[in-house]
């Protein structure tokens, strides 16, 4: 279940946020006994600190939560650091925050309630939050639900999240919002000219497929394409065990576009949405594709396979070619595509590439407003030569190791001819727990994209 705000109640415990800069003023406005209690308990308003103010009967009168200094930007969702320490109860946020800072606090409270407990029997604390005054409750809940959907899909192990289960998740989402969803599966992929998707997934007993969801009948057309490699062994270029441990998250691009799709549909955004997910498992058996093979894509471009572990760009290539044939107003792909992107910007930033000036302008501003950091990377044309082998049009794994995220993005760009195109090379995982973001699956870039759409598409 996605977290939602509780119904306002007179019994809700006030949760009072305090900045370090405002601590003295806050204490000065309290009765002497209350101010002395907070001082003597050592409450200093730093991030993650909480202190309960008791009633005479020992019940909680209010809880004060520190959110750091006004200029502090190192911690997103600062209020959630303290919220995670609260005892069971229903809390009503009392804060001086406004605008995007208030939205961030409200979203942080909901996301702090997220738990991936599908495989656990231990009960969780019973905590709820009343929506603070001034926030768009439906919007914040849609953002939280989309993010929690993404997290759940990524966190689920591949034994329970293969192509069939990913298809089921997309179908359930479509049913929830009155969208349509069709699937092309197995050898039918060849009959309908999706050869790269079929080739990458054919070695697995779990049939490869292309999931195609559509919603909305008016407004600009937006197509989201998400990499749905439900587990990646590396194929015949087999990954070592240490590198295979997190490969359940290799469908993080698909999980993120499904979360974004929920946000768009739940808010009745006035556009025509299409979601394409090539869902495969990159496995090993006698039918696996081989290093040195040359494959012909849907677009007709030939691809020399120099590493079967660079399979994500292959399945995306066919899906992007299909998306481009429809000539939408914008195509966005999301994929856990390269380790090079993690080396470049680490696990917290979502690097993106775009051919659209409006998107390049809008995304960084939207990211700052939604606590969803992104960083623009270049489609550097001189590197095109690196993806052009001698015997085919394209090389799926250029030798040398330089600019791996850029060359992967350039590869994908070859399959989008005229449509404005944005590509995210995301990590999809929090390696260390942070406020409102537990260790595990994570959406990256979805809120920023959602906030940028009005400027990019003229909504």
TrEMBL record:
User: Which GO terms fall under biological process for this protein?
Assistant: proteolysis
**InterPro entries from the xrefs?**
Leucine_aapep/pepB, Macro_dom-like, Peptidase_M17_C, Peptidase_M17_N_1
- State its Enzyme Commission number(s): 3.4.11.23
Key word Ligase present: no
Q: What cellular component terms from Gene Ontology apply here?
A: cytoplasm
MF annotations from Gene Ontology: manganese ion binding; metalloaminopeptidase activity
Keywords, A to Z? Aminopeptidase, Hydrolase, Manganese, Protease
Similarity annotation: Belongs to the peptidase M17 family.
Protein name in UniProt: Peptidase B
Give the encoding gene's name.
Answer: pepB
